[in-house]
Amino acid sequence: MGKVISKSTLRAFLRLNKFSYKRIRKITSLKKNDAAFEFFKQELEHLKVMEDSGQIALFFYDEMGLSLEPCVSYGWQPVGKTKGVPAEKSANITTMGFLNRQNSFFGYQTTGSTNSELVIECFKKPF
Question: Which of 43, 78, 110, 111 has the maximum number of C-beta atoms within 10 A of its C-beta?
């Protein structure tokens, strides 16, 4: 086009066309494999039938890592002034848990990162 458009004109144009300025979210649905999803859905149904007949004890496992160090990506600040959030270094806290369909929960917590040996030890502990 060869013309220079000011930031305020561009902002006004975008707002008129129902755009807003906000954080862009990460989504995983774009990577979904429908065939694999259906396969594992059927496998899960088979495992539920096995549990209902007393052949197995079915538990769902998940883990999460926490850090007490805040993550602040951006924010509005007056020009020439710096705002901050108090932060202290902390070790990562990892929580692992087993949950069954009867809502029995068994959780484990550790400081630092997890590895396969630690997860295997949690699997070996009696419920």
Answer: 110
